[in-house]
């Protein structure tokens, strides 16, 4: 069972390298660019300030993963010898996509605890140190691969406590979640979702809410609306996408969309266009 490929095909990540150097002083991030960030501390010491209202001091090579826009800063003094490789990240579907929404504000993981990422990290650091043609493009793709491998690591190690990633790591919920992700157009009932997990309806609903943080019906609504938002971003008309995301008519999708977001698809698309024009 492939727990990630459908999610990644719908809500993939694009990365752009923006820093490859020693850090001396403070580097501030406002969150205004609506992107997440991933920082690789290759050597030295760095302090992350502002995330979760605390300071995090890192003294060993580490991965710092901030999946959503937020305000924070990285700080190091000259004698700290902080060597950083940094990229911005943008998930398809915007900042509220199911993947990034299921993650904490920040993940900090020592590199020596990430054996699954070791080969990719070695390749990245070698590319960063050399001056080969296409270096930046290669590192961008390697950052994207690194994110996928990080998700795989989080699932394999069951390191998240709630959200869809925690659900995919749960052996009782994974089958039903993958089925829903693969076939959003199917007229899912809670009983049918429970059957996919070989659980009773009541036990499934209770366990689902504990792990995912939503009821099965709420999650199904969220998944379908997220897919609709992605397709609307791509310029698809609502009357052409309703059936693809599980609704009998455009009006039924519009009602579900408003229930989830508080606005109609037309209002949401207009606000998105205005934001992009002023972004």
Question: Describe it for me?
Answer:
By secondary structure, this protein is of the alpha+beta class. It has twelve helices and nine strands. The protein has two domains: 153 residues, Jelly Rolls (Sandwich), CATH 2.60.120; 109 residues, Homeodomain-like (Arc Repressor Mutant, subunit A), CATH 1.10.10.60. Strand 4 and strand 5 form a beta hairpin. It is globular.
Instruction: Please report which band the strand proportion falls in: under 5%, 5-15%, 15-25%, 25-35%, 35-45% or over 45%.
Output: 15-25%
- Mean pLDDT over the full residue set: 93
Instruction: Kindly report how far apart the N and C termini lie.
Output: 40 Å
Strand segment count: 9
What is the CATH class name of the largest domain? Mainly Beta
Give the name of the CATH superfamily of the largest domain. Jelly Rolls
Total count of domains? 2
Indicate the CATH architecture of the largest domain. Answer: Sandwich
Task: Give the overall shape.
Answer: globular
Order of helices and strands: HEEEEEEEEHEHHHHHHHHHH
Q: How are strands sequenced across the largest beta sheet?
A: 1-8-3-6-9
Structural class: alpha+beta
Spans of 5+ residues with little confidence (pLDDT < 50)? none
The number of helical elements comes to 12
